[in-house]
Amino acid sequence: MASLPSLAARLRAFVALMKPRVMSLAVFTALVGLLIAPVRPDPFLGLIAILAIAVGGGSAGVLNMWYEADIDALMSRTAGRPIPRGSVSRSEALAFGLILASSAIALLGLALNLLAAALLAFTIFFYVVIYTMWLKRRTPQNIVIGGAAGALPPVIGWAAATGSVGLEPLVLFLIVFLWTPPHFWALSLNRVGDYARAGVPMLPVVSGRPETTRQILIYSILLFPSSLLPWALGFGGAIYGAVAVISGAIFVALAVRLARCRGGDRRPAYRLFVFSILYLSVLFASLLIGKGV
């Protein structure tokens, strides 16, 4: 019989497969989509919806690690993940991911509605099949196209509450979609060697630093007016509008500083990456504050 410490280590390994830090931001955007919807479900059903979305997001992370175990082992950033480290086998990860995905979809469909369940199923499929299996190793636009999966949680949250899709969640989808490339490219600028060694055609590997920083600046500029749409359309409120203007201006300023940076200074890219996480969190939180949630 396995000892308690070994069982705890195995449990931690399976939790790590779900990419909890990455998942937490996606789940938060789903929660915002659910809470700002004009119709709110019973609190217990709302909790079930968020749990199902979290488990579904976790399943996508597990299946991503299952498929990418070979390249994870080649990259310093990911070599310590459970499968390359030998804590979990690839077959165990595959079974775990499929069980999580099917359970989450079924739970959301039975407890809330079929539209939300279908959107969750599509999100998992898009992230695992379209992004992980098809795009990531084939095109430097992998993050741009694949970012649609990460932008869908607020739409799922809204659908769970209302059983429909409105303009508001599509605006939130657009914001997260435009936020994703500068967020991930800022990270990848300081991981060029890792991606090159693993054969992943990330934009900095294929096109170099100047083109990557130019693309980051373009997406950051596009993100700024898009982030003002909730205020312009009347569902963001004055607090949201102020937060969007201030944080968006900082985002663009950091992107400009990164684009102007020459040489091997890693700090501008790191600052933009870290701020991008804070930016999306604060932006979506201000939506809740504006709604009095």
Automatic annotation (TrEMBL):
Gene3D superfamilies: UbiA prenyltransferase. The keyword Transmembrane helix applies. It is a multi-pass membrane protein. The chain crosses the membrane at residues 21-39, 45-67, 88-108, 114-135, 142-161, 167-187, 216-233, 239-258, 270-290. Pfam families: UbiA. Signal peptide: none annotated. GO terms for biological process: heme O biosynthetic process. PROSITE patterns: UBIA. It is found in: Cell membrane. Keywords: Cell membrane, Heme biosynthesis, Membrane, Transferase, Transmembrane, Transmembrane helix. Its EC number is 2.5.1.141. Converts heme B (protoheme IX) to heme O by substitution of the vinyl group on carbon 2 of heme B porphyrin ring with a hydroxyethyl farnesyl side group. Carbon 2 of the heme B porphyrin ring is defined according to the Fischer nomenclature. Belongs to the UbiA prenyltransferase family. Protoheme IX farnesyltransferase subfamily. This is Protoheme IX farnesyltransferase.
